[in-house]
Every structure is written in structure tokens, then in C-alpha cells.
């Protein structure tokens, strides 16, 4: 018969250790120690204050999300600030698939030509992958590498249009949150925020057009909505009054993700504006953010009053990997 | 009795020590913000200096790039044809090429004459280029709805590129001719993806160099297998018994070899997958191949393909006479 005293003794022994381990685990002391040891290659690790802040994003909308998504920010190579040029913060969600490295490589080759560009790459993964980490380091770009995993029950299955979170939403929202936590509205640093998917094609002219954005600027995008291009309708006074699209032109903002840019100040000024996570009809994702930021009247048309195509919504074919077979034919250690 | 007492003290001591340890750790965490505060300004400074250093390095690189005339030239032959994504493909391709010093882009259109789209594009690209054109004869051309593998594509255009190079080679004299001896020729399709590293690997090719290509042949990558610094066979899942089971993007040929072998060309009637072999088998044997990309262990080029954009709504509108403005170039 175990005596009460013995049980008490065991509890008193185990308790401090369990507390210690849980606290330690949650805060991931290791990077903290790394910093204190002086591994100062410009790395700064910040952490979310526990699960509460994260679940706030989803729990308020429905209760079936039990999985807590923990996010980690790694902010490396902060851009050198220029007094003259606004910094363009390019937010790119990405996820692992065979063409990922290729897409990011050619995207980086484009970005390397744009001065004062800050690439915020957000992986849809549980941890930052070595592939992306290495790629970002080798490009020489100014970047911030973030990650957040879309919960499995939210991921789109293939290309089916589900009433679930459209791909990249959580990643874009994380980047917005990072921007709001990093920059304060009093800062004089001018910035433009642009959402660039990793399979589109961008001309260099586009980035120079968006640099002068005061609130939200818009322009045509090729190959969206089943058309050669979709474009905002601009009247003689240079104001946007409608949308030249076939697919639901009555959306508040009938525009593709690649067709607009937002001034950073506006993002900071309206800290509650995020992409809506659930219950968003197909094609309304962009509206869910923009309607909280700006009205149609405030939109600034670029690209020669929306008559030039400077961005193409290209999509890359899924590579045929039949010859890999079930066990894999090629060396899995070779990174593609 | 005494034993028990000792044990009790041990336990109490242990409990106190672990409690103190916990409090210490919690205090550490609490202090974290302060530490970061201190480290941050230093971090920021270092990052800023790094950023400035990088900027300067890039500046040096770009000025070096324009001055770098002593490295072998790379002639890139790209066949292209008009379709919706053509301008987009050429645009992002040019962004890659702009980083490569001494690159001469030979764009060959599958067209009866140069198109304004490509002409204007090349003029604004900032690259050194040659704009050629050669129409594929109808019987060799893929028809709408044909699968892409039915007929080899780009053979006539690549041959036209070779013809232009040979013409240039024959006309060159003195220093120019000497420079051509070192130059390299690479066949780059307009929808693949190329890393910048690839071009530095290609640049020093004596005869024919080879390397792995990603996302081709129904596999993650195809590659030559290298033993003792020599290519002994090819690792491919599709028709490995071809003379050269390698993709167009997986090899480069020295210009000298091309000029000294005027009969070497691509056979437009070749069986599927044999286009590369039809060209290479006149130039080199497997033994002479130069393996690049860390003895063919790294993937520096990917055989990406771009989806055809869906134009259902556009087609419907055009039937109604309400199609998008054709003057807007896409």
C-alpha cells in the first residue's frame, strides 16, 4: 500500500520538472540560447506568445478547429533602406511540390533586377524547409522566411473548388501580421505590399509602376477569368468605375491577387484587415481584404490607365513522374 | 528512523533546487525581451552593414558583367512560336539571361517573318541578341489538338540557329575568330527554367558537356552516370537505349565543334526522343562527354512546362464580337 507521503513525495519531485519541460518546450529555448551565445549572423527569432493568439484567427469563425497552428518567424537579411525608393514587400506563399525549386529560382531571377525589393516567402509547412532556406540564402535577395501550415482539413484537394480556405490565405495573412508587428505606422519608411504567387510571370516595369501607390493601385492581369486578360474599367477622369471581366463582374473587387498593390501605411492603419479564411466564395478572396481597406473611388489605375499587360497569370504543368514508380527511380538525395 | 530522515531531507532539498531552477528559467524567459532589445540594435547595425556590403558587391558585379569580355561567349539558341504565353515565357527567360555575362541570345521564330511582338520585346530586353525566323513545313508541324510528343518541335529553328552561327564563323577573322574558338552553344527552350549557376558550368566546354535535367523523362530528373570522371551510361526511365538519351536542355556544344562539323544538324524526321541523338551522334562519342554540375549530381535546369491558359470565356465573347481588345498585347 503506497503511503500518502510517498505519493506526495513523487508528485513534488515530478511537478517542477514537468513545468520546466512544458515551459521550455513552448518557448523553444534553443534558438534563444543560440542568440545569447552570439551566433549573430543577423538572425533574430521571435515567437508567438502561445497558442492563444493563433487560434484566435480560426476559433472565432467556427469551433471544429482544435489543431493549434504554431507559427515561427525568422527574419533574416533585413533590406537596406533607401530614402528615395519605396521598398516593395513581395508576399509569396509557397508549398512543396516537384516544381517548387524551379518556380522559386526563376522568380528570384526576376526579383534580383528590382531595387529595394523585400521578399517575404511564406511556406505552407510545419517547419521551414532546408530547400527554401538554402535557396533564399543563395539568391542574395533581401528576404524574410516565414512558415505556417494550413491545417489538413482545410487544404484543397487537388484543384477542386472547395468551400475551404483558398490556397495561400493563411500564409498571406501571416505575412500581413508580420508586417504589422515589424513596422509601426509612425515610421517614415515608405513601403508597398504586393502579393506575388510563385508561378506567375512579372515584368520589371510592373514593380516600378506600383512603387508610386498611395493607397491601392490596380492594373490588368493576363490569363485570368478565362480571358486573355481581365482589367479594371477606367473612365476619362482616370478613375476606376468597374471591372472588365466575365466572371462575376459585380464583385466588390473583381481583380486577381496579382492585379493590385497596397501601400504599407494603409495596411498598418487598418490592422484588422485580413483575407477572410472561411466562407469565401470563389473569386471573392481579394475582395475580402480590399473592401476593408479602400473604396472603388480610391483605386489608382496603373499601366497606362490599365491598357498594358505587365503581369501574366501563368500556371506550370504538373510534371509527369510516372517513371518514378512506387519506390522511386531516382536518388532521393538529389534536390530538384 | 535515521535513514528515513535523511531521505526526507534529500527530497526536500531536491524539491527546493528544482523549484529554484524553474524560477531561474522563468526569469530568463521574462528577460528575453530585454536581451533582444540590446542585441537588436547591434543586429540591426550588422544587418544594415551586410545589406550595404551586398549592394556594393552587386554593383561591382554588374559593372564587371559589362566589362567581362575575356570569358567565353555563350550562344543560346531558343526556338519560339506564337501562342498566348509566348511573351510571358520570353519575359521571364530574359530576366534570367540578363544576369549572365557574355550571353548572346539567338531567338528563332517559327514564323514566315519576324513578328512585331518578338521584335519589340527583344529590342527592349537589354540583351545581346540575333532575331531569326524559320517556318516549320506544314507536314512537320504539330496541329491543334496533337499531343506535344507527336512530332519533334523546333528542329528547323535550331538548324537555322546553327546556320547563322556557321555563317558568322565563316565571316569572322582575327581576334573575333579566336574568340569563337572558345564559345559554347546551348539550346534553351522558352518554357524551361534555368539557374544562373548552369551557365557558369556550361561556359567552359571543350567538346560536349552534359549534366542532369530535372522533371523530364517521366522522372524527377534524368542524368548521365559518371564513373572516374567519365560518363558511362545514362540514368533515364524512358528509352535508355538511345545513342544519347538526354534532353535538349542537358547538354552544350562548343562552337568550334559545330564549325568543324558542318553536316551536324537536327533531323526533323527523327523518331520521338531521338532528336538530340540525331545531332550529337555526328559530333561526339559518350567517352568524350564532359560531365558538369558536380559530376552530374546537381540539378541546375528544370524541364518545366506552362499550362495552356483557359480561354473559354474569351472564345465565347469573340463569337459574339465582344472579344478583348486585340491591340492590347498579351
From TrEMBL, chain A:
The pathway it acts in is: Protein modification; protein glycosylation
Where, in this chain's numbering, is Mn(2+) bound? 199
Main localisation, per the record? Golgi
The residues that carry sugar chains are 305
Q: What is its EC number?
A: 2.4.1.135
Q: Determine the domain of life of the protein's source.
A: Eukaryota
Q: How does it assemble?
A: Homodimer. Interacts with SAR1A.
Q: Which family does it belong to?
A: Belongs to the glycosyltransferase 43 family.
Q: How does it sit in the membrane?
A: Single-pass type II membrane protein
One Pfam short name: Glyco_transf_43
Q: Which GO terms describe its molecular function?
A: galactosylgalactosylxylosylprotein 3-beta-glucuronosyltransferase activity; metal ion binding
Alphabetical GO biological process terms: carbohydrate metabolic process; chondroitin sulfate proteoglycan biosynthetic process
**Amino acids binding UDP-alpha-D-glucuronate:** 93-95, 124, 167, 172, 197-199, 313-315
Q: Does the keyword Transmembrane helix apply?
A: yes
Its keywords, alphabetically, are: Glycoprotein, Golgi apparatus, Manganese, Membrane, Metal-binding, Phosphoprotein, Secreted, Signal-anchor, Transferase, Transmembrane, Transmembrane helix
Q: Which InterPro entries match?
A: Glyco_trans_43 (IPR005027), Nucleotide-diphossugar_trans (IPR029044)
Q: Quote the protein name from its UniProt record.
A: Galactosylgalactosylxylosylprotein 3-beta-glucuronosyltransferase
Q: Name one GO cellular component term.
A: extracellular region
Catalytic residues at 286
Q: What organism is this sequence from?
A: Sinocyclocheilus anshuiensis
Subcellular location(s): the record lists: Golgi apparatus membrane; Secreted
- Which reactions fall under this protein's catalytic activity? 3-O-(beta-D-galactosyl-(1->3)-beta-D-galactosyl-(1->4)-beta-D-xylosyl)-L-seryl-[protein] + UDP-alpha-D-glucuronate = 3-O-(beta-D-GlcA-(1->3)-beta-D-Gal-(1->3)-beta-D-Gal-(1->4)-beta-D-Xyl)-L-seryl-[protein] + UDP + H(+)
Q: Which cofactor does it need?
A: Mn(2+)
Site positions (Interaction with galactose moiety of substrate glycoprotein) are 230, 323
TrEMBL record, chain B:
A GO cellular component entry from the record: Golgi membrane
Q: Which reaction does it catalyse?
A: 3-O-(beta-D-galactosyl-(1->3)-beta-D-galactosyl-(1->4)-beta-D-xylosyl)-L-seryl-[protein] + UDP-alpha-D-glucuronate = 3-O-(beta-D-GlcA-(1->3)-beta-D-Gal-(1->3)-beta-D-Gal-(1->4)-beta-D-Xyl)-L-seryl-[protein] + UDP + H(+)
Ligand binding (UDP-alpha-D-glucuronate): 79-81, 110, 153, 158, 189-191, 303-305
- Which parts of the sequence are annotated with region: Disordered? 310-330
Q: What is its main location?
A: membrane
Q: Where is the active site?
A: 276
Which cofactors go with this protein? Mn(2+)
> Coiled-coil intervals in this record?
39-66
Recorded hits in InterPro entries, A to Z, give:
Glyco_trans_43, Nucleotide-diphossugar_trans
**Which residues of this protein are annotated with the site description Interaction with galactose moiety of substrate glycoprotein?**
222
Q: Which Pfam families match?
A: Glyco_transf_43 (PF03360)
Q: In which pathway does it act?
A: Protein modification; protein glycosylation
Q: Write out the GO biological process terms.
A: carbohydrate metabolic process; chondroitin sulfate proteoglycan biosynthetic process
Record's subcellular location: Endomembrane system; Golgi apparatus membrane
Question: Does the record carry Plastid as a key word?
Answer: no
| Record membrane topology | Single-pass type II membrane protein
The name this protein goes by in its record: Galactosylgalactosylxylosylprotein 3-beta-glucuronosyltransferase
EC numbers for this chain: 2.4.1.135
The entry's family comment says: Belongs to the glycosyltransferase 43 family.
Q: Which residues bind Mn(2+)?
A: 191
Its source organism is: Sinocyclocheilus anshuiensis
Q: In the record, what terms sit under GO molecular function?
A: galactosylgalactosylxylosylprotein 3-beta-glucuronosyltransferase activity; metal ion binding
Q: What class of enzyme is it?
A: transferase
Keyword entries, A-Z: Coiled coil, Disulfide bond, Glycoprotein, Golgi apparatus, Manganese, Membrane, Metal-binding, Signal-anchor, Transferase, Transmembrane, Transmembrane helix
Amino acid at each position: 500500500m503506497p503511503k500518502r507521503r510517498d505519493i506526495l513525495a513523487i508528485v513534488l519531485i515530478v511537478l517542477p520538472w514537468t513545468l520546466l519541460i512544458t515551459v521550455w518546450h513552448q518557448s523553444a529555448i534553443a534558438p534563444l540560447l543560440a542568440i545569447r551565445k552570439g551566433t549573430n549572423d543577423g538572425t533574430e527569432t521571435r515567437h508567438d506568445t502561445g497558442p492563444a493568439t493563433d487560434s484566435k484567427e480560426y476559433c472565432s469563425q467556427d469551433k471544429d478547429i482544435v489543431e493549434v497552428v504554431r507559427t515561427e518567424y525568422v527574419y533574416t537579411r533585413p533590406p537596406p533602406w533607401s530614402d528615395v525608393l519605396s521598398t516593395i514587400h513581395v508576399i509569396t506563399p509557397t508549398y512543396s511540390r516537384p516544381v517548387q525549386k524551379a518556380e522559386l529560382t526563376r522568380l528570384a531571377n526576376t526579383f534580383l533586377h528590382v531595387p529595394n525589393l523585400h521578399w517575404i516567402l511564406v511556406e505552407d509547412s510545419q517547419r521551414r524547409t532546408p530547400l527554401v532556406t538554402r535557396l533564399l540564402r543563395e539568391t542574395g535577395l533581401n528576404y524574410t522566411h516565414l512558415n505556417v501550415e494550413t491545417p489538413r482539413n482545410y487544404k484543397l484537394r487537388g484543384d477542386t473548388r472547395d468551400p475551404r480556405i483558398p490556397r495561400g490565405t493563411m500564409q498571406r495573412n501571416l505575412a500581413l501580421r508580420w508586417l504589422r508587428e515589424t513596422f509601426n505606422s509612425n515610421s517614415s519608411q515608405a513601403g508597398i505590399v504586393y502579393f506575388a504567387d510563385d508561378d506567375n510571370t512579372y515584368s520589371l516595369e510592373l514593380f516600378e509602376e506600383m512603387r508610386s501607390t498611395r493607397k491601392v493601385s490596380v492594373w490588368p492581369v493576363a490569363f485570368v477569368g478565362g480571358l486573355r486578360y481581365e482589367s479594371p474599367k477606367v473612365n476619362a477622369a482616370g478613375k476606376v468605375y468597374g471591372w472588365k471581366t466575365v466572371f462575376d463582374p459585380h464583385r466588390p473587387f473583381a481583380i486577381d491577387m496579382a492585379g493590385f498593390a497596397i501601400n504599407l501605411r494603409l495596411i498598418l492603419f487598418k490592422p484588422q484587415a485580413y483575407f477572410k479564411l472561411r466562407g469565401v466564395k470563389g473569386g471573392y478572396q481579394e475582395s475580402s481584404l480590399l473592401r476593408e481597406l479602400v473604396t472603388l473611388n480610391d483605386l489608382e489605375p496603373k499601366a497606362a490607365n490599365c491598357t498594358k499587360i505587365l503581369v501574366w497569370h501563368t500556371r506550370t504543368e504538373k510534371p509527369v513522374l510516372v517513371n518514378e514508380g512506387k519506390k522511386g527511380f531516382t536518388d532521393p538525395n538529389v534536390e530538384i | 528512523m535515521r535513514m528515513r530522515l535523511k531521505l526526507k531531507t534529500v527530497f526536500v532539498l531536491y524539491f527546493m533546487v528544482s523549484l529554484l531552477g524553474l524560477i531561474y528559467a522563468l526569469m530568463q524567459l521574462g528577460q528575453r525581451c530585454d536581451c533582444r532589445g540590446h542585441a537588436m540594435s547591434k543586429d540591426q547595425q550588422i544587418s544594415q552593414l551586410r545589406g550595404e556590403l551586398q549592394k556594393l558587391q552587386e554593383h561591382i558585379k554588374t559593372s564587371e558583367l559589362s566589362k567581362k569580355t575575356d570569358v567565353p561567349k555563350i550562344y543560346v539558341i531558343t526556338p519560339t512560336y506564337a501562342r498566348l504565353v509566348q511573351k510571358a515565357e520570353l519575359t521571364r527567360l530574359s530576366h534570367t539571361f540578363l544576369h549572365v555575362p557574355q550571353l548572346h541570345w539567338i531567338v528563332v521564330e517559327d514564323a514566315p517573318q519576324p513578328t512585331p511582338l518578338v521584335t519589340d520585346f527583344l529590342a527592349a530586353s537589354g540583351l545581346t541578341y540575333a532575331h531569326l525566323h524559320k517556318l516549320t513545313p506544314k507536314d512537320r508541324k504539330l496541329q491543334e489538338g496533337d499531343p506535344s510528343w507527336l512530332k519533334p518541335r523546333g528542329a528547323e529553328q535550331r538548324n537555322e540557329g546553327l546556320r547563322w552561327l556557321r555563317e558568322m564563323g565563316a565571316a569572322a577573322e582575327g581576334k573575333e575568330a579566336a574568340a569563337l574558338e572558345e564559345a559554347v552553344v546551348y539550346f534553351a527552350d522558352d518554357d524551361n527554367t534555368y539557374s544562373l549557376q548552369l551557365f557558369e558550368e556550361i561556359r567552359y566546354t571543350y567538346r560536349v558537356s552534359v549534366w542532369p535535367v530535372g522533371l523530364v523523362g517521366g522522372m524527377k530528373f534524368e542524368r548521365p552516370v559518371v564513373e572516374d570522371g567519365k560518363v558511362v551510361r545514362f540514368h533515364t526511365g524512358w528509352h535508355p537505349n538511345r545513342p544519347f538519351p538526354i534532353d535538349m536542355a542537358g547538354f552544350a556544344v562548343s562552337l568550334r565543334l559545330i564549325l568543324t562539323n558542318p553536316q551536324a544538324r537536327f533531323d526533323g524526321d527523327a523518331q520521338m526522343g531521338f532528336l538530340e541523338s540525331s545531332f550529337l551522334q555526328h559530333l561526339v562519342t559518350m567517352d568524350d562527354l564532359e560531365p558538369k554540375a558536380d559530376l552530374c549530381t546537381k540539378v541546375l535546369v528544370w524541364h518545366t512546362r506552362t499550362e495552356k491558359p483557359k480561354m473559354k470565356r474569351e472564345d465565347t465573347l469573340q463569337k459574339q464580337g465582344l472579344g478583348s481588345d486585340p491591340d492590347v498585347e498579351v
